[in-house]
Amino acid sequence: MMKIRKFLSKDSGQALEISRASFAEPWPQNEFEKYAEGSFVAEDKDKIAGFVIGKISGDQGTLKLVAVNPAYRGKGVGKKLMDRIFKYFTKNGAREIIARSRLHNEAGCSFLKSFGFEIVKTIKNYYLNGEDAYLMVKKLDD
Ligand SMILES: CC(C)(COP(=O)(O)OP(=O)(O)OC[C@H]1O[C@@H](n2cnc3c(N)ncnc32)[C@H](O)[C@@H]1OP(=O)(O)O)[C@@H](O)C(=O)NCCC(=O)NCCS
């Protein structure tokens, strides 16, 4: 049974493994702990199936990272994590959420669009390897 719960510091090792399988430029392990407040994991028994990390400043939420273990993809785990973080953002006063995705990350862009995120601009050279990012925004309902 998949359970969504808050991110705990003991989760950062498994989150790093999922990041390595998911991102060209994974975060260092200690970076996860900075965002524990707005972070959630999907847990299947003792295994972390995925995680989402967000942060709020003022009335804007930022989706920092979301990733699902490749073995668990396509089963709605990402959606469960997003539903949880949307609640966190709404409860803490966010009116909109921003996210960035690599231009070539078709699954990532489709995933974000499926929640109503819209591309507002392209940020040139956003990633360390020179790749561009889409800046995407989702307005939250009142
Ligand atoms: C993007 C990611 C988090 C999706 O996780 P997931 O658990 O497989 O997603 P879900 O099963 O909850 O899918 C939710 C919706 O996203 C979209 N989606 C998910 N994976 C997709 C894919 N490979 N291609 C196209 N659309 C996709 C679909 O609209 C899907 O809804 P549907 O199943 O009703 O069609 C996962 O593929 C991942 O970790 N990718 C690597 C990291 C990454 O790119 N993160 C996002 C950067 S913004």
List the helices and strands and how they pair.
Elements: E1 2-6, H1 12-22, H2 29-33, E2 39-44, E3 47-57, E4 60-68, H3 77-91, E5 96-102, H4 106-113, E6 118-123, E7 133-139
Parallel strand pairs: 4-5
Antiparallel strand pairs: 1-2, 2-3, 3-4, 5-7, 6-7
The structure holds coenzyme A.
Coenzyme A is lined by residues 22, 66-68, 73-79, 99, 101, 105, 107-108, 110-112, 114.
Explain what the structure shows.
With 142 residues, this protein is an alpha+beta fold. It has one domain: Aminopeptidase, CATH 3.40.630. It is built from four helices and seven strands; from the N terminus they run βααβββαβαββ. It has a seven-stranded mixed sheet with strand order 1-2-3-4-5-7-6, with helices on both faces. Strand 3 and strand 4 form a beta hairpin. It is globular. The N and C termini lie far apart (32 Å). The structure holds coenzyme A. Coenzyme A binds next to strand 4, helix 3, strand 5 and helix 4.
